[in-house]
User: Fold this.
Amino acid sequence: MGLSQQTIENVKSQIDILDVIGDFVSLKKVGQSYRALSPFTNERTPSFFVSPAKGIFKCFSTGKGGDAISFLMEHEGWSYPETIKYLANKYGIEIIEDEYTDEQILHQNERDSLYIAMNFAKEYYKHNLLHTDEGKNIGLSYFKERGFNDNTLDIFELGYSLDQWDHFLKYALEKGYQQDIIEKAGLVIKKEGSSQNGGRGIYDRFRGRAIFPIHNLSGKVIAFGARVLKNNSKQPKYINSPETDIYYKGKNLYGLYQAKQSVRQQDNVYLVEGYTDVMSLVQSGIHNVVASSGTSLSDDQIRLLRRFTQNVTVVFDGDQAGIKASLRGIDMILSGDLNVRTVLLPEGEDPDSYSKKLGPPAFQKYLEQEIQDFITFKTGLYAEEAAKDPLKKAEAIREVIESISRIPDPIKRTVYIKQCSDQLDIEESVLVAEQNKILLKRKAGKREYDVISDIIEEKEATRRSYKNWDEEEIVALQEKESIRLLLSYGYNEIEEKHHLYDYLLEELEEVEFSTPVYKEILALFKKELAQGRVIDAMYILQHGTENMKSEVIDFEANSERYLVSSNWQKQFNIYVPEEKEILKQVTFTNILRLKFRVIRKLIKQNLQDLKNAPLDEQQKFQKIHANLKKSEMEFAKLLGNVAV
Assistant:
């Protein structure tokens, strides 16, 4: 059963692109648009722009662009129907198809079915916790003994899995869920050689455990963590869902769905180790907290944090041996170009235990007072050993310099080297020398293909400088500029009763566009103009082909990106005219540039024809060459000092 067109239109009419993208990316206002670090790649300089007025986004790092719907499809990997359903739920628009019947469940695509199965399991575990005798006596008692209140249980949607062999499996099958989907979701385990019909070889993965649902950024349950509650159990204390088509262990952070708004507001995130640590801090009034979902910290998780803040505070348990084993996480966060601070808890304490011991106000005060930068933290760890042994002191200094060397930004490295020199009373030049040695060693140890990638990337950046573009590329650029002017200012008057489109189309009559997409847009403009309509960028976004939309998004985003700041006028008393104030000059210059480049392109083609022509035809091409060179000189003269 598909979504009705009316449902889709209802959803589209409610979309606020800032609201949608803001759930996944931390946006900052710049002029009329909003800017952020790209959510699609790892970068240090923001290249992701959102224009609320036009309802579009553009990522200049990857070239991706579009509206709120295409953002969700790119970012979350959802299908179009999945995206519409998500937005419908977000804006409270009812979709009948969300009422899944047994027949519909059988026909869901696998990814859809996995989400549905995980949500079904979550509700099953919640029901067990709150409404069964076993759940209340064992699961609920455990959470209450740990000090968690009803609000915390609700926020994190906690549950309990009955201590029975296959109770969940049987219940799911009764409700029409397919056994293979339940298996693929990781909710049951099937032993080799077991029956295909629900025999004793298939059993519930999480039986007899407290359940911690793991959500993705949009709030869908994608996995579970589960804690055993039997004191005499030989099973692992915690187990997690296996990886599936919707869950990748190293790409999610426990609690981020609940924390993301607070992380943005506080511009800081607390990173802790376990599920209950997150829950205890939230219950203490600290909502900007996440955990690494029972896995060691990964690069993907660090990139995930960078979407919301540049500042990470790692909260370490008071266990010296465990701390030193966890120091790799600090270096990884620094490598991800994030700012790192730390809080060390007293010996034998973790965030869960210590927050409960102190109570919310005192614990919040402790976090504020005990926060320290990673240099102070690292040197403090080795202080006692270093005080007694010069070799241990040297080792401690190298540990700190190793961390500093992980920072991609050389200016930040310089600042930290200075701080390290002051704190440790070591000559700055000595520390710089040690850092350079580490950096050189790391560079030398790069695998060959990494080095080659660096060289290719550098050459590509150089090649794309304007002076190195060939004529084909520059002609395409000028064609694009013509289309941008036409769609942005077509109806603007450049002289009395003379619109920009009149002038531009007249001048372009003798020019044949060579880039297919710009040729298409120009043809569409002329076709609509013949019907009395002057179309603009918004018309293309609503009615154009995908290629047309992509191009329009690109130049619309670029126009937002390079708006002249009002500070020039306010602070420096320098007036810089807006483009629309000098449209005639801008359009005239663009046409000259386009024609100049087209002629140069024709000269190049003609020279090639001359080279390949037989002797009796060469005079014809020589004559063409002379005429083209004459035109080239005329246009060059008209352009004067304008850079071409």
